[in-house]
Design brief:
4-stranded mixed beta sheet; about 350 residues; alpha+beta; phage-related protein like fold; 6-stranded mixed beta sheet; globular; 14 strands
């Protein structure tokens, strides 16, 4: 105690927490409130069994010899059935246990501990699914015993060939890298994981090549998606003397203070396709130190549900309430020709104008 008065330090020093009421803001700030860039841009649908399937077909290339003599009989059969592909459904979940005492206590920032946990764990599960959909995970058939079913990620679906098996250039990999893709010879219709290749620096011309490949196959790519560690140096490269882009200028006659341009987030190709550059904070490395950059037309994919997101009560255990937040979902890549990948990127290497 002060020699002359009772002060704040004296009140705070009283045992068991002192005598001053704490001033705690009644709000919790979620610093991880991150959107789902891929989920938000693809369609949402449903399926009716654990191995949904669909068909893919496309028009044949133009035939420059398409001419017949007047009166000739019809030629050979030009009809085509396309191909049938399928995926496997995956159950993702979060479980939680909250005691009745925790629920009845006067807590900071929320009124009900159980409801808060359900909300937060549900958001975590959706983030998990976003990251899985952008991974190179192979599909797996559920065996009903020890092996859970898994949905193939986008990185496993994309291959450098069209549905007829012809090379397209839509998948660019480092040395020793190899495509995965849908296995039409597998009785379970599985999608295989790609093989990691030697890491290389990202080249801008490669992005142009992949986008052109998608466009020539009939897709309309609109965005580039990668981890921030890949997007940021790509954006910064556009300001260097090595970048073959138009000089950034400010519109004439624009009023108001000037802005300091620090990034490029839209690329306009020379064949009319505009690509938005999206840094996805939830996308993970494809393999250790190997990054994927996706060029995509999101209309070619769908997040499909056998059972949508729901919260189910589990058997009560003592004085705790148990809940399960889950969904039975899969990623349908309805047309892998709408997507391209530049794989095996070394995010620490300098961006190049053309491959080294």
């Amino acid at each position: 105690m002060s020699a002359t008065n009772l002060d704040g330090a004296d009140l705070a020093a009283v045992v068991l927490g002192g005598l001053i009421n704490p001033d705690i803001m009644q709000q919790i700030f979620d610093i991880s409130d991150i959107p789902l860039p891929f989920t938000d841009r693809i369609a949402s649908g449903s399926h009716d069994n654990s191995a949904p399937s669909w068909t893919m077909d496309r028009l044949a290339a133009p035939d420059l010899t398409n001419a017949v003599v007047d009166g000739d009989p019809a030629g050979t059969d030009d009809s085509s059935n396309g191909i049938r592909v399928n995926q496997h459904s995956q159950i993702s979940q979060k479980t939680l246990r909250v005691s009745t005492r925790a629920q009845d206590s006067n807590t900071i920032g929320f009124a009900n501990s159980l409801a808060y946990q359900v909300m937060m764990r549900g958001n975590e599960a959706r983030r998990d699914v976003e990251a899985i959909m952008l991974s190179v995970q192979a599909s797996v058939a559920d065996d009903g015993a020890l092996v859970p079913g898994k949905s193939a990620g986008l990185g496993a679906w994309i291959v450098g060939t069209d549905i007829f098996g012809d090379a397209t250039g839509s998948a660019v990999r480092g040395a020793l890298g190899a495509d995965g893709g849908w296995l039409d010879t597998d009785t379970d219709g599985l999608v295989a994981i790609p093989t990691a290749g030697t890491t290389v620096g990202l080249a801008v011309s490669t992005i142009q090549d992949v986008a052109q490949s998608i466009w020539q196959l009939g897709g309309n790519p609109t965005l580039i998606m990668a981890r921030p560690e890949v997007i940021r140096p790509l954006s910064s490269f556009m300001f260097t003397s090595d970048a073959a882009i138009a000089t950034l200028t400010r519109d004439k006659g624009e009023d108001g203070p000037a802005s300091a341009q620090m990034s490029v987030n839209i690329l306009i190709t020379d064949f009319g396709v505009t690509l938005s550059m999206i840094a996805n904070r939830l996308q993970q490395v494809a393999f250790t130190d190997n990054d994927n950059l996706y060029v995509m037309d999101p209309s070619g994919a769908m997040q499909s549900f056998l059972t949508g997101w729901n919260t189910a009560p589990l058997a009560r255990d003592g004085t705790a309430d148990n809940r399960q937040v889950s969904a039975d979902w899969t990623l349908k890549v309805l047309n892998w020709e709408n997507f391209g990948v530049i794989a095996d990127i070394d995010a620490t290497s300098a961006i190049l104008a053309v491959p080294a």
